[in-house]
Amino acid sequence: MARLNPRLRLVLLLTAVATVGCDHVTKHVAISSLAGTAGRSFLADTVRLAYAENPGGFLSLGANLPPTARVAVFTVATGLVLLGLAAVAIRFQWRGWPAFGLTLFVAGGLSNWFDRALRGSVVDFLNIGVGSLRTGIFNVADVAIVLGAVVLLVAEIRRDEQQAN
Question: Is 142 in the active site?
Answer without folding.
Answer: yes
